[in-house]
Amino acid sequence: MWIPTEHEKYGVVIASFRATVPYGLSLEIGDTVQILEKCDGWYRGFALKNPNIKGIFPSSYIHLKNACVKNKGQFEMVIPTEDSVITEMTSTLRDWGTMWKQLYVRNEGDLFHRLWHIMNEILDLRRQVLVGHLTHDRMKDVKRHITARLDWGNEQLGLDLVPRKEYAMVDPEDISITELYRLMEHRHRKKDTPVQASSHHLFVQMKSLMCSNLGEELEVIFSLFDSKENRPISERFFLRLNRNGLPKSPEKPERHCSLFVDLGSSELRKDIYITVHIIRIGRMGAGEKKNACSVQYRRPFGCAVLSIADLLTGETKDDLILKVYMCNTESEWYQIHENIIKKLNARYNLTGSNAGLAVSLQLLHGDIEQIRREYSSVFTHGVSITRKLGFSNIIMPGEMRNDLYITIERGEFEKGGKSVARNVEVTMYIIDSNGQNLKDFISFGSGEPPANEFHSFVLYHNNSPRWSELLKLPIPVDKFRGSHIRFEFRHCSTKEKGEKKLFGFSFVPLMQEDGRTLPDGTHELIVHKCEENTNLQDSSRYLRLPFSKVSLLGTNNQAIKATKESFWITSFLCSTKLTQNGDMLDLLKWRTHPDKITGCLSKIKEIDGSEIVKFLQDTLDTLFGILDENSQKYGSKVFDSLVHIINLLQDSKFHHFKPVMDTYIESHFAGALAYRDLIKVLKWYVDRITEAERQEHIQEVLKAQEYIFKYIVQSRRLFSLATGGQNEEEFRCCIQELLMSVRFFLSQESKGSGALSQSQAVFLSSFPAVYSELLKLFDVREVANLVHDTLGSLPTIMHVDDSLQAVKLQCIGKTVESQLYTNPDSRYILLPVVLHHLHMHLQEQKDLIMCARILSNIFCLIKKNSSEKSVLEEIDVIVTSLLDILLRTILEITSRPQPSGSAMRLQFQDVTGEFVACLLSLLRQMTDRHYQQLLDGFSTKEELRDFLLQIFTVFRILIRPEMFPKDWTVMRLVANNVIITTVLYLSDALRKNFLNENFDYKIWDSYFYLAVIFINQLCLQLEMFTPSKKKKVLEKYGDMRVTMGCEIFSMWQNLGEHKLHFIPALIGPFLEVTLIPQPDLRNVMIPIFHDMMDWEQRRSGNFKQVEAKLIDKLDSLMSEGKGDETYRELFNSIIPLFGPYPSLLKKIERETWRESGVSLIATVTRLMERLLDYRDCMKMGEVDGKKIGCTVSLLNFYKTELNKEEMYIRYIHKLYDLHLKAQNFTEAAYTLLLYDELLEWSDRPLREFLTYPMQTEWQRKEYLHLTIIQNFDRGKCWENGIILCRKIAEQYESYYDYRNLSKMRMMEASLYDKIMDQQRLEPEFFRVGFYGKKFPFFLRNKEFVCRGHDYERLEAFQQRMLNEFPHAIAMQHANQPDETIFQAEAQYLQIYAVTPIPESQEVLQREGIPDNIKSFYKVNHIWRFRYDRPFHKGTKDKENEFKSLWVERTSLILVQSLPGISRWFEVEKREVVEMSPLENAIEVLENKNQQLKTLISQCQTRQMQNINPLTMCLNGVIDAAVNGGVSRYQEAFFVKEYILNHPEDGEKITRLRELMLEQAQILEFGLAVHEKFVPQDMRPLHKKLVDQFFVMKSSLGIQEFSACIQASPVHFPNGSPRVCRNSAPASMSPDGARVIPRRSPLSYPAVNRYSSSSLSSQASAEVSNITGQSESSDEVFNMQRMLFNHIGDGPLPRSDPNLSAPDKAVNPTPSSWSLDSGKEAKNMLDSGKLISPPVPPRPTQTASPARHGTSVSPSPAGRSPMKGSMQSFTPSPVEYHSSGLISNSPVLSGSYSSGISSLSRCSTSETSGFENPVNEQTVSMSTYSVPEEPVRKESKTPPPYSVYERTLRRPAPLPHSLSIPVTSEPPALPPKPLLARSTNLENGSRRTEQVPRPRPLPRKVSQL
How do residues 1701-1719 score in pLDDT, each as one tens digit? Predict the structure, then answer.
């Protein structure tokens, strides 16, 4: 039986459990579970990560943990009773775990690995805490480490800042909001700005001295030198190096590592240097022979310096190499470091051995204890400590030092009878009072143990040596008295013996007779001469002698006076026990000289502070002893001395001696009667303040009042203890009187002089420190009243001295922080006066930082939910006094501009944050009663209205994201909780006071606006949180958005007819709320829209306003990334929502209302589909087709369906930017044209819009024109640019702006030049089908044609599409997919290449136009594209496949021509026709004939560099024809059986016959041309071709050409050669071609067209190879011959969609893309015939070589486009123009075989939809004539051979016998450009009429 658990409530899963049993709950190891019931070894409960799923699991899998239960029962909450740090670690590590894996996925390797290490460290530390064996201190340390790592990880991962108190997380509900703010601020500051350490230390490690010829031991001396003051500031660090330049004792790191400690911040500047002096130990001269002298001397070697500024970058300077310099003259050695610093190059140079000193230096920051912790390894290995000279900046009590620093400065010596100067060495000893040498008290520096004696270095031949060597003598105090220092002077001989001869000595005693030590400073000592062997052991013999020149002044010892020899030393004592001050000694010995007391007390101010603090206790005992001795006489003097000493301790240097004085007062002070005198003198001073002229001394007294009161109170307590509390009343009266005097002096206003206010300020700054002393003797209430009265006596006028105001506030602040204020009894007394002063300051907006701090402290004391009566009363007082001013202050400071300096800005944010925290604290403490009182307190509605507006505005400010740092979610949630609670209280007031006749729009609007931005806050979007965070927030606060949503709904319902005021203004804000993916919130909010539509319908009969606003807002919100799919579905549910409100539907317009409502929802839903797609596309990184396609779709929707012009223009510019980014310059130009079309050439002013300034419509249109021209130029679409140049030139001309007109004409000319001179690539076109439901809406189940990029072939394009749609599957066939594919939940892509069909053939067929121009029309303004699929119909004839080979031709018609505003457009219409085998044959022959003509003309005009392409082509055609190629056609179509079965094909058979004859005619002319240009080595081939040609002619039955000419003359593209009907064969000769000079024969430009897919140079073939093909010419010949035997590759299908041009040319395998063609190819292979695979359609243009491209060039329309005509563009997504700069992009067949063989590789006819395969000359000269009109009549008709072909194609040619003779006149000249243009335009207009297109919207530029 299942029973509820009592104690087993919480556990951790220790082994994963798979739920194989019924009702089992699957658990993973590490999950935490909450247990509800148990039964026989099983538990029932749930995993905390998913509390909704409950189930059973074995109890053995669970490790139970202690936990406490809140809210027992159904909604119980279990909280583990473990250390909160452990709980936090566990939950944080779980959160990190998932995010850590994501880092790996996102490839953030660095953070991934760092986090991994940190997580492992935390787990280790967690184990240590869980084991529980740590000491208290160690536990604190571990927790500190844990929290530091948790904070680091949270910051790196962008998680929230966790407020902590003593390492444990804080529940914001348990502390006041101001305290929470401070905790957050503290952690944030800690994270942001590391606190500047006041103490710094320099770590030095000596590595080595690198020098080429050392050989001697060295001493290296480091010290710090202040170049500003020219003195050393530290002791010395001394180390010895061996002969190799390495430290002598490497095993003792303290010998070669040192820490220079206690550098103040003021010493981290660039004029502090590290100086290094190097002394060598050896012979006198560095180069002396080894045996010259055995005695070793200390001699200068070199010096190096480094500025400490070089280390301030904070990085470790490992192995710095310092250059070592030597002075030029040894006498300068003492100042070599100064010379190097000053860069006096003449005085020093690099040491001869070019030495380098390798050292490691690092600056460490923080106090020495912190350094010990952080760099423990340095201290454990050992490091010597080098102190600063003298005391550090802060002297610590208890510091024991007695160091005497002696600097051996210089000497002046006589020659001593020698011819040269001496080599002087000084030896120093310390001799004690007994005449014995003191051992181990001479320290050369840290790093070296102290020695017994010291030897100075020796300067060579110098009688005035200067040493400047600093030594430290740490002599104990007890040895000091009676000791002296002796200096012995010796001359060091450089002779072989190397002896040192004593010639004099000096001495100096350490202490004088009166007990004072040797004074600091330089001392000139007498050098006493002596003999070499003098014994100085008996010091008593010389101690009677004078020691210094100063002591000689009073004596008459002439002998000594006359001595010229002197020796100078500088001494400096650093002692906490000895003094050099006589006045100090006199004061301490006052009892021996009572008569000197007055003098001593007077001189106390002159004594150095360090001397006083050294003897602080003795000095204080002395003062109070004197006071007891005679209080009348010495009272005020002792008081003054006491004040001086107390104020001395305020100095930062002696600050740490305050505890010494405190200890003295508590433990040693014994003046039980002193309080009377102290009170009396103090009162005397206070009473004199107002009259005294000089206030300085009085201010000193007031500054010391804290300690004076301490003495008074302690004295009174001692007196009370001694007397049993006598004179208590008298003491109280004295204190009361004293404070009365104070109150009087405080209440005085300073008139004129500021001295009084300064004294008031001094008093106030130290007064709060007195409270705690008074509390020792008085009751809390008494003290509170005294303080209240004192502070209340301050003058309230605000215009008094500002500094006094600030001090007054600081005094209030200290009062609030004092112990007195924490007591509730005293707090209630003090609060009014505190609030009074605060109110005044806030009103004046002064000292806000201080005000904020005081307020924070006030609220910190009032804990949350404190329902004590006293607290409620305090809140009453605060609300009354401060709420209003607090709101005003926040409004004031947030509306100010933020300061620019970073420090100021931080301060500004702090103040704002603190005030906000105070306001929130106050509001959280307020109860219903407080709110009621507050609202009832407003006397008029106006006041209430102002208050509500103010508080709503403040709340809006609090919600701003910048209010708190981004990771302060905890603070934000608390703030929001307070805001929503307050709003709920205030909404009642709104309902009661501002509805119906009192309705106030402004206040209601403010309310709704606040509610909306509240719900939209980022920190409340729980969907973005991790599951654990979301759970915590919901448990603590619930979903505050839903609460606020319900409140909005309820308030909206209360509005009644006033709702109309908010329509449509609130649509946008409410829509924003509904876009939040929270179902409850949406269900509450969406009915409001229904209500709005209803009210709007009532008011105006429609809801156009609602609709317009809805659409505008939807667009802006969606582009910000809001909304989702479910929202669209939810919006649809508004329609059924009309149901629940039947009363609304009873209106008269019910039906219409419903219909228009449904229509609106449908429009909005369709818009949302597009917007969602747009949003999703825009989230991607780089620009791709998807983004552009999506933008185009949306842009069209705005124009055609919504007629939202402003939106439309915005999206035009978004699309334009996308194109520019993708470098689609042509498309960018077309896009901008859309906006240009909306503008007129008028002077109407336009407002500023997007990036456009305010300007006239004309100016904007001009700017647009120029931008578009620039883009057309960059996109190499120069023809279009020319038309625009003309348009803008017309405008300039009409305004007589000739300057700009000239520029424009020049620009136009430059575009013409570019057309003729520059190369441009022809793109390929691809048809792409997007099938399946997973595609975005604008692509789903649609097919498009896409313009490829330059050089892009099919494979590359296909790969690009698959990259854009990584989940798509490429379909491997070209058949139309079935319905299952359309409906599949997947993405299918079907891609194949298509051939463009140019609109107009006129330019392309006209002769004499260069290829550069024609190529433009082949690939621009293309509406139609073609794709061919070959198949066999009926039984296949194995002998002759042509009989049954049909072609299925698919034509795709686009909604817009390419190129346009996008690289791809949707297919609007597809037409499929079948071409019969006969039609196929005709088309193949036409194409091959055209190709031959082109090559012949190019050869004739010498456009070919070699003749190979012509040779190959002739060979291919003739060879195939001879071996049965054309005869196959004859066998198939010219037999009687075929003619009888197909009587309707008579005309076509005649046409085929004509083409065959025409081909023979062209071949004959081609051979004639070939003969003229063929190189010698190709002659045999030519001969063979001629022979084969005669065989071919006979096979065709041609005997005489002249007979054939009549029927079918040759027509060359350029009108040459012009063969007359009666012309003889001779006229076909190449020479004969030159007869006609006016038109050069076959004039084709030399520049070839380059296709983007097969770039080939010149005629795309060189010498024997066909460029771009894989076959050699031999192979081609052989293959052609073989193919010809089997009817070649001619009749095979030509359109494999999987191939781009080069592949189409030669591909020996069947394609896998077209299943039909693949099968067909297989059949052919099976039948033993070699075939080429089907390839996509690439037409062979009648006037251009089919395979090798020609450079793209503009057309006649480009050459002279009609002014003002924009017909040739496709300017808008909804306007379709037919005519224009349209062309085709042919691709050559695979080989130069006959016309037949070109079928398989080359797409069929190049002509446009009506397919006129014969050019104009052909028409005019042939035996049948075709009227011009039908040719140009329509450009968008079904393709050839369709069901309409009989009615739409040209009339069939007449049979040969009936042909009409052709006149022999030359063909008509092409029409003039202008004419051509107009014809073009007519074409366009006709076409537009033929196929109706959606009309453009009426022009409407709403001031854009």
Answer: 334 333 333 333 333 333 3
Residues, the chain: 1904
Q: Do residues 534 and 502 make contact, with C-beta atoms less than 8 angstroms apart?
A: yes
Q: Give the chain's mean pLDDT.
A: 76
**CA proximity to 571, closest of 639, 648, 512:** 512
Would you state the pLDDT for residue 1672? 37
pLDDT tens column, 666-716 = 887 777 777 777 888 888 878 777 777 677 777 777 787 778 888 888 888
Helix or strand run (H / E) with residue 755: helix 755-766
Distance in angstroms (rounded) separating the CA atoms of residues 1296 and 334: 88
The three-state secondary structure class of 1125 is: helix
In whole angstroms, what is the distance from residue 353 CA to residue 767 CA?
Answer: 69
Global model pTM greater than 0.90: no
* pLDDT score recorded for residue 1704: 39
1577 secondary structure, DSSP code: G
The 3 state secondary structure assigned to 651-682 is CHHHHHHHHHHHHHHHHHCCCCCHHHHHHHHH
CB 347 within 8 A of CB 328: yes
Q: Tokens representing 1254?
A: 């305010």
Alpha helices in 240-300 (DSSP H): 253-256
CA distance 157 to 167: 20
Please name the residue ranges forming H helices in 319-367. Answer: 336-342
| DSSP-derived secondary structure letter, 1697 | T
Q: Give the sheet arrangement for strand 402-412, strand by strand.
A: 466-473, 402-412, 566-575, 521-526
CA 634 to CA 681: how far, in whole Å? 11
Q: Reduced to 3 states, what is the DSSP secondary structure of residue 1543? A: helix
pLDDT at 180: 87
Nearest to 1075 by CA among 1026, 1104, 1110: 1110
Give the separation between CA 781 and CA 764, rounded to whole angstroms.
21
**Cβ–Cβ under 8 Å, residues 1226 and 1243:** no
Residue of 1785, 1826, 1834, 1846 whose CA lies nearest to 1810: 1834
Q: How far is CA 1711 from CA 1447, 1796, 1802, in A?
A: 16, 21, 15
With the C-alpha atoms ordered 823, 824, 826, 831, is the resulting torsion angle positive or negative? Answer: positive
pLDDT score of 609: 66
Mean pLDDT of the region 13-27: 92
CA 1693 to chain centre: 57
Q: Which of 740, 733, 732 is nearest to 793 (CA)?
A: 740
- For residue 1182, the model assigns a pLDDT of 59
What's the rounded mean pLDDT across residues 829-857? Answer: 83
Q: Could you tell me how far CA 905 lies from the centroid of its own chain?
A: 22
C-alpha–C-alpha distance, residues 1621 and 1863, integer Å: 8
List CB contacts of 1101: < 8 A, sequence separation 6 or more: 1149
Please answer whether residues 1231 and 1215 qualify as being in contact, where contact means their C-beta atoms are separated by less than 8 angstroms.
yes
What letter would DSSP give residue 1062?
G
Kindly give, in sequence order, each residue whose CB lies less than 8 Å from that of residue 139, ignoring residues fewer than 6 positions away.
Answer: 129
Selected residue with higher pLDDT from 1181 and 1186:
1186
- Sequence-distant (6+) residues with CB within 8 A of 1048 are 1008, 1011, 1012, 1015, 1070, 1073, 1084, 1085, 1088
- Report the C-alpha gap between 1000 and 992 in whole angstroms: 12
What per-residue confidence (pLDDT) applies to 585? 65
Cα dihedral sign, 790-792-793-795 = positive
What pLDDT band is residue 555 in, cutting at 50, 70 and 90? low
Residue 1086's nearest CA partner among 1072, 1107, 1099 is 1072
Angle at 1733 between CA 1732 and CA 1738, to 5 degrees: 100
- C-alpha closest to that of 565 among 613, 505, 514: 505
